[in-house]
Amino acid sequence: MQNMKPATAGGPYKVPRQHNGLRSGFLAVTMHAVLLLFLWVGVSWQNNDPVEVQAEIWDMKVQEAAPPAPTPDPAPEPEPEPEVVQPPPPVPKVEAPPEPKEDPEIALQRIKKKKLEEEKAEKLEQARLKKEADEKLAKLEAKKKAEQKAKEEKEKAEEEAREKALAEKEKKKAAAEKLAKEKAEKAAKDKAFAAEMSRITGAAAKGTTGTAAQSTGGRTDGGYRAAVIAKIKSNLNGNFDDNLTASYAIKQLPTGEIIGVRKLKGSGSDAYDRAIESAINASSPLPKKKDGTVESDITADFKMKDMH
Asked: Structure pTM?
């Protein structure tokens, strides 16, 4: 745009001359062309269907009326044109802004932290696995100890049963040996007594001195029996009822050694009877008479009231 020149002092204002007339003409032509284009497009879009015209021809000579013409089917309505779907305009790809570069020091710190966390997690996992292994091992050890203890207890019980059976066997064997020994001793005493009695009897038959005859008795000596009872009483142990009485037959050698004890009548108390029998056996050899002889067979009643 050119600069406007001011009017001279005292003169009229003058409009400066314009030099863009060509541009204005071009714009006017362009606008008219666009207007005509819009009009043409509007006219071409109108859709006027043609009007159907029907005509009937009558013949005056014909008396009868012709049948009416068939009614034509209505014209089908035009199908609507399919709507054209315009594809959406392409969405412009928005590129993500570039990530800012991380500080090397911060990246190093992050890597170290991640490594420490991984090492810590690995240590925890190893500790968990070790704990599970230790628990399994402890269970196995406890089970093994329980089985070993049960085995030892079973072996101990079997050993105790064997020892008990062996002890019972030894006890029975000892009792049998003791009984056999007692029987043998008794048999030996009986044999010795029989031999002595045979010797004494044979000597008396040959007219020997009367010492042997006197040894077998023949005359009762009250003091002798009292001495025998007194010695047996000294070996009696225990406290018993005064009403108890037991009778025993005693066999002895001329030396006073007892070779046989036989219960003739019990007192009714096994304890008292055993005590009297033990006292008799403990009193061997028995006292002799004043003349040095003994009674080979003595029968005595042991009354508890007389034993005090």
From this structure: 0.32
